[in-house]
Amino acid sequence: MNTKAKYTSWIKDKAKELGFMSCGISKAGFLEQEAPRLEDWLNKNRNGEMHYMENHFDKRLDPTLLVPGAKSVVSLLLNYYPEERQRDDSYKISKYAYGTDYHFVIKDKLKGFLEAIREHIGEVDGRAFVDSAPVLDKAWAAKSGLGWIGKNSNLLTKQVGSFYFIAELIIDLELEYDTPVTDHCGSCTACIDACPTQAIVDPYVVDGSKCISYFTIELKNEIPDYAQDKMDDWMFGCDVCQDVCPWNRFSKPHNEPLFNPKPKLLEYSKQEWKELTQEVFSEIFKKSPVKRTKFSGLKRNIDFLENAADAD
């Protein structure tokens, strides 16, 4: 076995040992196919108020501008599918936000991973990324053979569906590279048909500014009136296009204790969410992704849902 193959094999074994669901590797370079797609998406204002998506256009498409001398993108998936779900008569929270904020959990794992690589291989320069930098995570994961981009624009994997986080190490080490897998969406349009706000405007194209996740997390202004009867009881995020995807029937519960929710999150009814106080918000959502909306944002979302119910 040559050195490249040896290092590649070791890195993939280490990823499993650290609890990652899978690991794929691709050659760092310019994402030629994604460039016109991203440009078109931005030109059509499908990012809404997410102006940060317009920044660092070149860096988003070329990791060698983020990590000088980068040779490889090591893409990693971490399962977050929960064992237990919220009660039925509740305002809903996206499953990725049930437990501790994934940025903290994954960043720690990646730091340990990079240290282990350096201990085992020697001086390797690189950086860890968890969706908070201009890196096209899904494109790299697809290039690394970890799945294909589905019609809902999420990465889908045959054996496990799509309820996982994507992260990467971009390093200056040459490795053996994986090849992309084929698209297995076929003629299925389950996600397009089920989207409450018709945010999937074309197969494989999501208008971010119409998505319930955007309304409940990213949008700082008031949620538009036209969404009033389309929110499907989501107060933070939305999982509809994933819940209906046939590939997610293969989802299995994660084994990361930090992703387990506080009991109140699962037990609260709509009435209890309506009566939420700042104090209880801080207790339930300590170190949670939900803190991003702040108490005032979550209250705004709950009030909007409540008004929609009253209008019915």
Q: What spatial form do the alpha-carbon principal axes imply?
A: globular
CATH fold-level name of the largest domain = NADH Oxidase
Number of spatially distinct domains: 2
Helix content: 25-40%
- The radius of gyration is 20 Å
GO molecular function: 4 iron, 4 sulfur cluster binding; cobalamin binding; epoxyqueuosine reductase activity; metal ion binding
Main location: cytoplasm
Organism: Leeuwenhoekiella blandensis (strain CECT 7118 / CCUG 51940 / KCTC 22103 / MED217) (Flavobacterium sp. (strain MED217))
Keywords: 4Fe-4S, Cobalamin, Cobalt, Cytoplasm, Iron, Iron-sulfur, Metal-binding, Oxidoreductase, Queuosine biosynthesis, tRNA processing
Produce a short descriptive summary.
With 312 residues, the protein is of the alpha+beta class.
Write structural notes for this entry.
With 312 residues, the chain is α+β, with helices and mostly antiparallel strands. The chain has 2 domains: 3-171, NADH Oxidase, CATH 3.40.109; 190-241 and 261-311, no CATH class. The protein has 12 helices and 10 strands. The protein has a 4-stranded antiparallel sheet with strand order 1-2-7-4, with helices on both faces. A hairpin with a 5-residue loop joins strand 5 (148-149) and strand 6 (155-156). Helix 1 (3-17) packs antiparallel against helix 4. The longest helix is centred in the middle third of the chain and has 20 residues, at 102-121. The chain is globular. The model has no long low-confidence stretch (mean pLDDT 95). Pathway: tRNA modification; tRNA-queuosine biosynthesis.
